[in-house]
Amino acid sequence: MKKIALLLALFFPFILLAQDCSKVSKKTIKRLQTDINKLASDQMEGREPGTAGEIKARDFIIGRMQEIGLTPKGTESFIQAFSYFEKVKQKPNKTKLSLNNKKLKLNHQFYPINLSSNGQIEDVPVISVGYGIHMPDQGYSDYERLDADVNGYIAFMDISSPKDLNAKAPDLSSRATEALDRGALAILLYNSDKGTQVPSPSFNRIKKIGIPVAYIKASAFTNVPIEFVENASLSVTEYEVPTQAHNIIGFLDNSAERTVAIMAHYDHLGYGGEASKYRGPRKIHNGADDNASGTAALLELAYFLKKNKLKEKNNFLFIAFSAEEKGLLGSRYYVMNPTLDLNNINYVLNMDMIGRMETNMPLTIEGIGSSLIWESSLKELECEAFPLTLKKREDGPSDHAAFYYAGIPSLHFWTGKHDDYHKPSDDAEKINFEAESQIISFMESFILLMDSKGKIDFYLREK
Ligand SMILES: [Zn+2]
């Protein structure tokens, strides 16, 4: 019987694969439990980049990659460090504004913008400079209409645009520089037209034009009407927050021409922050499904491909990305600074949240549009355990997107959103380990099936 099975396997390898493709493996479940419990434990503090929790998670994953026997493929051993800027922060006790000696509330009624320098101006008269536009060649100048000099004043400026200006109105940066050149000590902005986009209260870098610049929200003028603003005190102390994050990269060398890249982000939200859906006191967001589940699956696939005694026709690159939750930063950085020639990457498999499958729930696979081979190949597998939802969408929102934009066929696996998404309640005890083990079996079969298909051609779908 064994001999027959072996013969069958030799001549019809996919029949055997098809039978195997949704098996539950107790050993896999055990490893998944260990890895997910560890990554989603409070000790890791939600794995936010730039924190001790990220470092602990990083070192744990490196340890696992070493155990499995992967070769380092980062820039320093398994690590590829990169820097980015978090949202600029303000010192609340040193970021203040009062109009006619009435204090406004930071963020509720005003905020410094990305053009602002730090500084403190006490009780200075305010001069209204209209739109702050000076375009004499267009026959328009707010400053020429003024009968006073701006020098030594706070410029009070409307960010919208005059109707009678034929040309495109200059941007805020040029208007602010104009006021600065005319000697303004600070600039206070407001908006008289709902159609005008207001400056963002949240930004990562400061352009520092040389004086404090703040935007006043419409709600502030119920206290002090715009036309009665006479003097102001303004202080701004804001600072950039440079942060270092770490991608982790391991390699399985089969001396093949091409490499399959398998990836999952391991970072999460730390104690919450902007991306959190939770409103309440500071709490660790453990991110068991998002994305300890994908990270553990990455390690399990590495384990399978390393230990399976087959020499596949592809090499395998395993990347655990950081700063995905900050805007897919780790994968973007990797694509700009690859440690392996991107031309040799055959295709990409990304996993982001594959731990919450319930009975009759489908496994969603996105990115079907990135190669014409995907749909028919997936149908060859015919797995019984769960239905598949195949979506053409190639561009995210997860780490495979950067690779798709680089012209590489990319698939993304996930089991869908749930009530605990981006909340502290995304915990390890809610993971369906049995189903995750089946998803991994499915992916293993899929990888072996694709191994017989040579180079996977990229497809650019017309949308
Ligand atoms: Zn995620």
Structure report:
The chain has 463 residues and is of the alpha/beta class. The protein has two domains: 18-87 and 242-451, Zn peptidases (Aminopeptidase); 92-236, 3-Layer(bba) Sandwich (Glucose Oxidase, domain 1). Helix 4 packs parallel to helix 7 (288-307). It is built from eleven helices and 19 strands. The chain has helices at residues 2-11, 13-20, 26-39, 52-68, 142-145, 172-181, 288-307, 329-336, 374-381, 400-405, 433-451, and strands at 71-72, 79-90, 96-99, 102-103, 110-112, 119-128, 134-135, 140-141, 154-158, 186-190, 213-216, 231-236, 238-252, 258-265, 314-321, 345-351, 363-366, 388-391, 410-414. The radius of gyration is 28 Å and the shape is elongated. Strands 1, 2, 13, 14, 15, 16, 17, 18 and 19 form a nine-stranded mixed sheet that branches. Bound molecules: zinc ion. The site of zinc ion (ZN) has 6 residues, from helix 7.
Features:
11 helices; 2 domains; Glucose Oxidase, domain 1; Aminopeptidase; 463 residues; single chain; alpha/beta
Report the sheet-strand fraction.
15-25%
Instruction: Determine the CATH superfamily of the largest domain.
Output: Zn peptidases
Q: Could you give the distance between the termini?
A: 51 Å
* Annotation field: number of helices: 11
Mean pLDDT rating: 94
Bound ions, cofactors and other small molecules, one mention each: zinc ion
